Amino acid sequence: MASSAASLYLDPQIRDWVLFPITLVMILVGVLRHYVVLLLQSPPKKLSRAAIREQRALMRAQILRTTSANSPVPPSVYRSISQHLSQAFVDGTYLKDGPPKGDAPSAPPNPLTDPSQMDGMMAGMKTQMVMMVPQMVIMGWINFFFQGFVLIKLPFPLTLGFKSMLQRGVETPDMDVRWVSSLSWYFLNFFGLNGLYRLILGNENSADSSRDMTTPFAAAAAAPQAPQAQDFNKSFKAERDNLEFAEGLYEWVGKDVETRILKKYGRLS
Amino acid sequence: MDLTNSLQKLAGYRPRKTQKSKETYDKGLILLKNGGYSRQGDEGWETLEKLALAALDQGDVEIADQCLQLIVNKFPNSPRVDVLQGIRMEASEPPEVALKFYDELLESDSSNAAVWRRKASVLRDMGKIDKAVEELSAMLDTFYTDVEGWIELADIYASCEQYTYALQSIAHALLLAPQNTFYFIHYAEIAYLAGDITLALKIFLVAVDMTDDDDGPVPPQDSIPVGLTLRAWYGVKLCTRRLITEPRLVSSSASQTAAPSAAILSNIDELSAERLRTAYMNMKGESAPKAEKELLTALAVIIQ
C-alpha cells in the first residue's frame, strides 16, 4: 500500500485547473441559484376578506373549545357563543361563496382546475427546475471533461468501505481509498457546501441543496395556498360535533370559586 | 417584534402627549440629525418609526414628515408604512381625508386588519359611534383573534353605557387571552356596572385566585395584596357589600349566576375587608379606619 501511494504523483496543474474550478463553479452556481429563486418567487397571493373569514371561522370554534374544560366565561355566555357558531356552521354563514345550494354532495375541487392552485404548483416547479438544471449541467461538464481524474488525497486513512463513495468513476480495485475522484469530489461539494452557503447568504438561503433533494414536491405542498383545497363545508360540519362535545366538558372557572378562595385563606377547612 | 404585533400596536395608536413620547422624541431627534438610524439595520428603522409617532404625539409634524419620507423611500408598498402614513394624515388633515385614505387602502387590500381598525377609530373620533361599531364588528368577524380590537369595541360600548354588549365583547377577549388578569378585572368591573353583581363577584374572585401569590414564602392569609390583586379585592368588597345590603340583586343576575349562600357571602365579605385593611396598613403605615365606608373611600384614592 505504501509503495502504491508513493508511486502516485498528482500534477499541480490538476489542482489549479480541475480541483479549484469545480469547487468555485459549484459555489458560484449555488449563489446564483439563490438569487434566481428570489427573482422567481412571486409574493404570496393576498386572500380576499371572505376567504380569510372562511379560513378563520374554524379557529373561532377551536379557541372556544380549547378553553371549555376551564372556561373563563360564564355558562350562559359560553352556551350562546357555542350555539351561535354551530348554527352559523349549519347555515354556511362563513362559507366564502355563501351558503351551499341544495344538498348535492359537493365534490372537493380539483386542484388542477383552480387557477390559484396552479400558481402555487407552478411556483414549486419553477424552483425545482432552478435547483435541478444547474446540477445536471455541472455533472455533465465534470463527466465530459474530467472523467477518471483523481483530484486530491485525503490527509487521513480510511477503510475500504469508503471506496465506492470517494472513487466513483475510477474503477481501480487496489488504489488507496484516500484518493478522491472528480465525480466524488462533485458529490462531496454538493452535500458539503450548505454550511458555506449559510455563511455567505444567511440562514434562509435557497441554495441549500439538502431541502430539494429530500422532498421533490414539498415546495408545492407547503405553499400557503394548499389549505384552500379543503372543503370547508365539510370541516364546519365536523366542527359542530366537536363543539357539542366540548359543551359537555364545559366547566366554568368561576364555579365554586368562593369556597376555593375561602379555603385558600384558611377560612374554611 | 414581529409584523402582526407591530401592526396591532399601530392599529391601537392614540395620541397621548406623554412624558415618554417626549423622551423618545428628544433622543430620536439626535439620531435623525446625525443619520445614525441607517447604521443600525432593522432596529434603526424601528426607531425611526417610533420617532415619527413620538413627533406626532408632540405635535411636530415636520419631523414626523421627515421620518416618514425616509421610511417610505426604504419600504414602499409595506402595509405597516401605509398605516403610519394614515396616522400622520389623522394628525393634521381633517378626518374625512384620512378616512378616504383608509378606504382606498382597504379597497386595494381588504385583508389589512390594522387599516380597518384605524378606520374604526377615526370614525369614533369623528363621533360616528354607530359607524365605528359597525366597522369594528365587521373586522372582528373576520379577524377574530384581535384581542385589542375586542377590548376597544367593549370600550366603545361601555362609553355609550351599553354594558351588556360590552360584556359580550370582553367575553371574547377572555376566551382569546384567558391568562390575562387585567381583562378579567375589566370584565368584572363592567359586569358590576351592568348590575350583574353576582357575576362580578365571581369574576373578581377568579382574578384574586389568579393573581395572589400562593407560591410565595408566606401563606396567602399573611401576604399583602398589591396591584391587581388589591384592585380585585376591592371589587370583591364592593360586590359583597351591595349583595348584603340589597338582597334583591342576588336574584337579578342577567347571566343567571347563582349567588353564594348567605354564610359564605358574609365570610367572603369579612375576608375581603381584612385583606383591604392589611393593604391599607402596609401602604399608609397606620391602622385603617374602622368604618367600612371610610376604608373604601380611602382605598379608592390609593387604587386610582
From TrEMBL, chain A:
> Under the cellular component aspect of Gene Ontology, which terms does the record hold?
EMC complex
Q: Where is this region: Disordered?
A: 99-119
Q: Secretion signal: which residues?
A: none
The record's keywords, sorted A to Z, are:
Membrane, Transmembrane, Transmembrane helix
Membrane topology term: Multi-pass membrane protein
SMART domains according to UniProt: DUF106 (SM01415)
Subcellular location(s): the record lists: Membrane
Q: Which GO terms describe its biological process?
A: protein folding in endoplasmic reticulum
According to the record, the segments passing through the membrane are 17-40, 130-152, 183-201
Superkingdom, taxonomy of origin: Eukaryota
Task: Give the record's family classification.
Answer: Belongs to the EMC3 family.
Return the PANTHER family for the record: ER MEMBRANE PROTEIN COMPLEX SUBUNIT 3
Function recorded in the entry: The EMC seems to be required for efficient folding of proteins in the endoplasmic reticulum (ER).
| Protein name as annotated | ER membrane protein complex subunit 3
Say which species the protein is native to: Postia placenta MAD-698-R-SB12
UniProtKB/TrEMBL annotation, chain B:
What residues does the EMC2 TPR-like domain cover? 65-193
GO CC annotation, single: EMC complex
Describe where the TPR repeats fall, as residue ranges on this chain. 147-180
* Keywords assigned by UniProt, alphabetized: Endoplasmic reticulum, Membrane, Repeat, TPR repeat
Show the stretches that span the lipid bilayer: none
Give the subcellular location.
Endoplasmic reticulum membrane
Identify the Pfam families for this entry: TPR_EMC2
* Membrane topology (UniProt): Peripheral membrane protein
Q: Which domain of life is it from?
A: Eukaryota
Q: Does the keyword Endoplasmic reticulum apply?
A: yes
Q: What does this protein do?
A: Part of the endoplasmic reticulum membrane protein complex (EMC) that enables the energy-independent insertion into endoplasmic reticulum membranes of newly synthesized membrane proteins.
The family classification in the record reads: Belongs to the EMC2 family.
Q: Please give the PANTHER family that the UniProt record associates with this protein.
A: TETRATRICOPEPTIDE REPEAT PROTEIN
Q: How does it assemble?
A: Component of the ER membrane protein complex (EMC).
Q: What name does this protein carry?
A: ER membrane protein complex subunit 2
